[in-house]
Structure formats: C-alpha cells, structure tokens
Amino acid sequence: MKVVKLHESRSHEWLVFGRDEERPSKIIDTNQYMIKTTNHAIMLDPGGIELFSAMLAAVVHHVPINQITHLFASHQDPDIISSLGLWDKTLPHAELYAPWLWEGFLRHFGCNSIRYNPLPDEGKSIRLDEVELQFIPAHYMHSSGNFSVYDPQAKILMSGDIGAALLPDNAPLFVEDFDAHVDKMRLFHQRWMPSNRAKKDWVRRVRQLEIEYLAPQHGAIFKGRDVQRFLDWLDELEVGTGVSAR
Questions:
Q1: Alpha helices (H) in 72-224, listed in sequence order
Q2: Which Gene3D superfamilies match (predicted)?
C-alpha cells in the first residue's frame, strides 16, 4: 500500500493510503486518509474489511496505535467502513463520527466498544489539539446521509465519493491531465449522484472554502487550479441519469 504525505506543519500531518497492489482483483481501489496531531489521530473512511490488515500495517509505521482516537465515516458504504468491527477490537477507546442516519446500519459492521458520535444533518466541527475539522453536509452526494471533511489550516477537503474516478492500478495519485480525467469521472457522477439540487447545494457550500487539495475516496486527488475546474465541471453536469425518460 502506498503512503503519501499531503500536508505537514507544526500542528499536524495529512497522510493518504491507497493503490494497494495486493487487494483482491474484484475489489475497487480506495483512498484512506489519516490526520495526525500532537496527541491524536483520526482515520477518515478507513476502508473495507479486506484492507484492514494492510491498513493496520501501514498506519503503525506513522503513529502509535493508541494515538488513533477518532474515526470518521462519510456514509454507510462497505468499501469505506466495513472494517469497523476489526477497528472496534483494535481501538476500543476510540470514537466514530458518522451521519446520525446510518448508525443503525453501521453497527451491523460491529461497533461495540467504539463510541458512535452521530453527526447532525447541519454538520459540526471538532478540535483535535490545535486542529479544527469541519464536517460539511454532502447529503445525496451520493448517500442520503453524507459528509465531507474540511481542514481550514491545511486547506484540504476530503470529499468522499465526490470527485471519484475509476482508474487503473498504476494511475498517479494526483490528477495530471484534467481534461482526460473527466472521462474517468463522468459516468460515476451521473449515475451515483441522484439529485441536481443536492449537487448544486454542495458546490455552493464548497465554493466558499479555500481549498488546495480536494481529496476523494476513489481515484486521484485534485490540487491547485484543478479544484476549481472540478467544481465548475460538476456544477454543470446533469446527474441522476439512471432514471429513464418515458
């Protein structure tokens, strides 16, 4: 599993874990993120059950296991959080931040020791040492209860499935040719994002943020001017195309 540092400052670090060459062939590739502060660490969308051993081995190279005090799940999909039951045994004193809507579903993955902190629809902020993290509503993008995570110090938005692309295993971790990358995103967003109204609302919220990296849960990370290019592209894209016109 590849590990890349997105941000490093006196107060905290951002790490992305992905491009796991040993994952099963029919398992979609995912990006997992970890924010490490002075005394804490939070894992964002820590991955599916099949990635648990690879993730655990990678994470402990960067942080003591007892420093991982928080987890975040943007929504309920198994590719981002079906490992919860194993993290529950590994991190019994940790807390999970996830949408209130999905608590009854996420507990099916196993959540006996980890404390579930339900996120209200309007979102909220938390502090880990000197670092503020904002949970930004992203409902119906594509889940009916869904959040992005914004770090105003690092200027990073972890966007979940928004911005996702289906790429080959050897693809670069960062978007290098935006125009070519669009073809890897279009069908995913048109079919998995059901609501143009919800899409417009998310884009409006995010345009108010200062973002250097837009980091999705699948595919490649947008940086610099490609962040605004992505928002412009998404704003104009017609979504919800799985419903046939009659």
A1: 78-81, 84-90, 103-106, 178-192, 196-207
A2: Ribonuclease Z/Hydroxyacylglutathione hydrolase-like (3.60.15.10)
What's residue 244's pLDDT? 57
Each residue of 141-153: b (16+ CB within 10 Å) or e?
bbbebbbbbbbee
Whether pTM exceeds 0.90: yes
In a domain, 61, yes or no: yes
Is residue 242 a part of any domain in this protein? no
The per-residue b/e assignment along 85-121, b for 16 or more CB within 10 angstroms, e otherwise, is bbbbebbeebebbbbebbbeebeebbbeebebbebee
Q: Residue 168: pLDDT band by 50, 70, 90 thresholds?
A: confident
pLDDT band, very low/low/confident/very high, at 245 (cuts 50, 70, 90) = low
- Domain with 33, as residue range(s), is 2-236
Count structural domains, the chain: 1
